[in-house]
Amino acid sequence: MNNSFLNMASIGDFDPLNATIPATKVEITVSCRNLLDRDTFSKSDPSKFSCLTFGRTEVIDNTLNPDFVRKFILDYFFEERQNLRFDLYDVDSKSANLSKHDFLGQASCTLGEVVGSLGSRMEKPLGGIPGKKCGTIIVKAEELSNCRESVMMQFCGNKLDKKDFFGKSDPFLVFYRSNEDGTFTICHKTEVVKNTLNPVWQAFKIPVRALCNGDYDRTIKIEVYDWDRDGSHDFIGEFSTSYRELSRGQSQFNVYEVVNPKKKGKKKKYLNSGTVSPSILIHAYTLCSELCFRGQTQINFTVAIDFTASNGNPAQPTSLHYMSPYQLNAYAMALKAVGEIIQDYDSDKMFPALGFGAKLPPDGRVSHEFALNGNPQNPYCAGIEGVMEAYYQSLKSVHLYGPTNFSPVINHVARYAASVKDGSQYFVLLIITDGVISDMAQTKESIVNASCLPMSIIIVGVGPAEFDAMVELDGDEVRISSRGRYAERDIVQFVPFRDYIDRTGNHILSMARLAKDVLAEIPDQFLSYMRTRGIKPSPAPPPYTPPGQPLQTQI
Fold it and tell me: What does the alpha-carbon distance between residue 464 and residue 546 come to, in Å, rounded to a whole number?
């Protein structure tokens, strides 16, 4: 089998660690044509690698003409020579060692050559194997916009053409964005849904930049294929749309006819080869502000989870902390939904994870500020998955108790925020809770004190309880106050998770809806802090290093 992948290597005098400020970022897309066939009983499985190593593409099975979906994002320096090398291999095993795979060819160029080519599209012959014609490589470059939005999408098909002799069809979708020269660049492939003419493809999250580079009216072409094991996938049909049209979401007016031009030209009564429509389309919120996406402000994310007894016994299915082997509980869904977006803005992906309202081993002391990983000197967890693991482990070791006190975890984050007020750091605290707050007066005072600091507080309420007090903390209608002092700015966003649960049980949709609303106020809160302090864009800071003080467990 010819499973090729591409390795993109940078060589020569370009040093990305010491280069000057880039003029722009460019996205590199790679295709190949007429590759060498190294496999005896099938075609090659090409994949590409990149040296300094910028990256590898995916492996595409059984094709000599691959269009790689995976992109390379490079900083482009007009004044520097940036040498690139593309190495192509036929993958014969899962080994990461290149010597274990068949070499298919190599091409070198500069990034300037690609950008300066007509339509920023360069085509070169592959070489590196004496006496062999290795095919060609096509490299496209496109300057990226500052669009940092993402969208959650899901599509379904209806009455697609039957292509398989002994079955129905195994359909999948391929997405392309249009280029100025009339060509199209591949940007996404769905999974294959086996043996159906009415497929429902899995929901997926994709950057809007990948679909249309921030131009909502740019043409998006979607092709529908029937998957075949030998790689000669059967074309079912295609349709064109735009992100603006797709954004209308699911409706009777947003259904696309899948048309096969060859069939249409031959058959007078031909109508279509089925239809495809978006069944989910949610504009996923991201923290897009000029300061954030220039990388000039580091977002520091902290999680605090409610371990009070009102959540119920974690061993019982009725508990909000119950760990089902089949699905995430409400706490885990809220944490994952918000955390996976926030973590994109945290360079080291190390997150403090705290708990409150539990009795801790070995002596049963009640704590309202304890490290989920059991290490008060270093409560940091590696990524959202690390936080999830620490949360699950804590459920096995602590005893749920009470009361529900927020002020200790708010004060914990505020201490760090108070040490960095120059705009280089911004702190976001996510509190996930099930019940009525016990220390309302102290929490209001903590929020008022924190309102002059570079921080925001997100509160997600889980379970059926009434959350009237949380609405008061949100401060959207009446600015929160304590002892006659009003909060300098609104820094709290509260949402009840139950309002976002999809009735059909689609947890991906529930999480996307939650993340969109729960993060909606953060950019304005962030910018309001910058404006009130007169802070303007400045050089990017180093990653945040927290003060070397241990976590003080609050009793």
Answer: 37
In a 13 Å sphere around the CA of 362, the CA atoms on its Cβ side amount to 0
Task: Report yes or no on 19 lying in a domain.
Answer: no
What is the rounded distance in angstroms from the CA atom of residue 116 to the CA atom of residue 233? 35
Domain-located, residue 396: no
- In the block, which residue shows the tokens 């295609």? 238
Residues 448 and 492 in one domain: yes
Does the pLDDT of residue 284 top 60, yes or no? no
The values of phi and psi at residue 156, to 5°, are -135, 150
- The number of beta carbons lying within 10 Å of the beta carbon of residue 166 is 5
Distance of alpha carbon 301 from the chain centroid? 16
Same domain, 176 and 231: yes
Q: Do 184 and 265 belong together in one domain?
A: yes
Q: What are phi and psi of 345, to 5 degrees?
A: -105, 10
429 and 522 share one domain: yes
How large is the angle between the packed helices 330-342 and 507-518, nearest 10 degrees?
60
Domain range holding 58? Answer: 24-143
- Cβ neighbors of 477 (< 8 A, separation 6 or more) are none
Looking at the structure, do residues 206 and 123 belong to the same domain, yes or no?
A: no
Is residue 541's pLDDT more than 50? no
289 has a pLDDT exceeding 60: no
Render 212-279 in DSSP notation, one character per residue.
HTT-TTSEEEEEEEE--TTS-PEEEEEEEEEHHHHTT-SSTT--EE-B-HHHHHH-TT---S-EEEEE
> What CATH number is given to the structural domain containing 508?
3.40.50
CATH of the domain at 117: 2.60.40.150
Q: How high is the pLDDT of residue 215? A: 87
What is the three-class DSSP state of 296? coil
Task: Identify the sign of the CA torsion 290, 293, 297, 301.
Answer: positive
Task: Please indicate, yes or no, whether residues 158 and 138 belong to a single structural domain of this protein.
Answer: no
| Plot region of 114 (φ>0 → left; ψ -120 to 50 → alpha; else → beta) | alpha
- Please give the Cα distance from 187 to 71 (Å, whole number): 9
The CB density around residue 295, as the number of other CB atoms within 10 Å, is: 12
Q: Which two tokens stand for residue 461?
A: 């309420």
- Residue 18 placed within a domain: no
Q: Which helix (H) or strand (E) holds 56?
A: strand 55-56
- Let me know whether 251 and 305 are in one domain: no
User: Which pTM was predicted?
Assistant: 0.57
- Total structural domains within the chain: 3
Q: Is residue 15 part of a domain?
A: no
pLDDT at 276 over 80: yes
- Do 59 and 90 contact (CB within 8 A), yes or no? no
| Domain identity same for 441 and 522 | yes
Maximum Cα interatomic distance, the chain, rounded to a whole number of Å: 85
Please, what is the Cα angle at 314 between 308 and 318, to 5 degrees?
100
Q: What is the 3-state secondary structure (H, E, C) of 338-369?
A: HHHHHHHHCCCCEEEEEEECEEECCCCEEECC
454-493 pLDDT, tens digit each: 999 999 999 988 888 888 898 777 889 999 999 999 999 9
